Amino acid sequence: MQLSFLKKKSTKETLIVFFTVLLFLLVSFLTLYQTQFYHGKIWSYLGTSDDRFHMMRIEGLYHSLQRHQFFPFVNMSFMNGFGYIVDVFYSNLLLYPAAFLRLMGFSSAHTLMGYYLLINFLTFGISFLCFYKVSQKYFNSLVFSFVYTLSTYRLHNLLFRHDLGEVGAFIFLPIAMLGIYEIFYGNRKKWWYLTFGMTAIIYSHAISPILVAVLIVIIGLCQYKEIRKHPKRLLSLSWAALCSLLLSAAYFLPMIEQLRHTKFVLTQSNGILPKGATSFFDMSKWSLNNGLGEPNIGIVLFIAAVVIVVSFTKIKDKAVKDFALIGVILLLCSTKVFPWVILNHTPFKVIQYPWRFDMLVTVLLAIVVASDPLKLFNSKLAKSGLILFTLLFAISASYRLVQGSSLQFVDQSEYNQLEPFSIGAGQEYLPQGTSLSDLQRTSHKPKIMAGKAKISQFKQYGTRLSFDFKDAKNAKVDIPIIAYYGFQSTQSEGKVSSLRVDKSNNNLAQVTVNGSGKAVVDYFETMTQKIARRISFLSLLVMIAMIFINKLNLVDFGKIEGLRSKE
């Protein structure tokens, strides 16, 4: 029997796609096997860690979806119902798949396992497609996806820190990089890659967009001559920035609104940039050790950085050369080599730890390795060997992480026991003056602070709290929720005052009641939140429509007066 159908180009392409998808799924599982699947246990630091914090975020979104609140602003699962406005400052966009797994009946442990598989697979797939879009080389794209996705710094965030925000940013960073490349080195009209990539990063992690913005400025300086020659590249960057702002208005505007009405812990925190920086010696040692317990770029990318320093002049491609140089410089700047003390009292203090720049170093050096400007991996065998060693290094690192701290290897049943008061080590989204320890000891029921009243029938359903009162005489009643801006008492019956903040009692909500009636307090979407959401949604629809119109050549924008290109 002759297998002539295998010779068809379409069949070969289908088989390659199938093989690639299967490979990514398999490697995604192998990377997680030691820490998430082995013996039905999960390796994790429990307590007040990022793991507990992000799992509570998932749990809160899951409970909100159960109540048909699809876009919550206050996570009421935190602090046993007192609420935490983390959803305004930390977008839930990437948590919906995990929340849907909870809705399907999966436990927290099984949700984490499935969600991490999905995150790994998406990072593999998106990074592969973005590199292939430029290179059109299968094996080079495969190298990039492995070196990037299995990078030590990314696995440090995924398996050790369990920072779902930064790990989410890793998914979309290659899209943003593709847009940056097109704007400064390629076809500037493809600026929308940067728009969607940057927007997705914004909705994933609040700090990562700042890092990407720094990278854009540095690359812009490297391409100064090109920009002077073709200034419309700067116009494309402006369009990308404007559209990103419109698409992310639903995130930025509500956050700014809350910051205007409430003084949060995060706004008064002192900068820790100098203390948070690691020494160059420690960075080098950790990277060569390829361990996941400390932030580092790993042995593959560290060796790449050394090779770049030695052979920088031999790199011919302008983009690759710029990325290589910037990657090495940012690696140095992520340590104490850079005088971070000069930025400690500037807005850059929100970065907290200079080693966060390792995210940019990872993607830049991974691009250089995959591009292979020095022709060190010319053959498919050499590229396959690099891929294999990258995988083995990742598996080895995860194994050593588990073996080094075996006490953190917990049963799934123990992992399923969440910690509602794990709101993050910095407690950033608490109003100033709020004591977390006091809230833990506070009874979750209304309390009369002054005056007289008889209270009964207290109920809470998500953000909605209510109680009946009678014979009240100027009774000031504290309600067991933090009085974030947006909570109102407008649906109450009887003489119930507007809601105020009791700053003397952990910033709890307070109402004054008289006579008899029913006090009802609930969170209502503010006008700013409503407008911002509609701006972002309509902007998304317009952008998608414009892209499809352009792709299908339904309208030739170049012939419209005022839009003609003069290039």
UniProtKB/TrEMBL annotation:
The keyword Isomerase does not apply. The keyword DNA repair does not apply. This is Cell surface protein. Keywords: Membrane, Transmembrane, Transmembrane helix. It comes from the Bacteria. It comes from Companilactobacillus futsaii JCM 17355. The chain crosses the membrane at residues 15-33, 81-101, 113-132, 167-185, 191-222, 234-253, 295-312, 324-343, 386-402, 531-549.
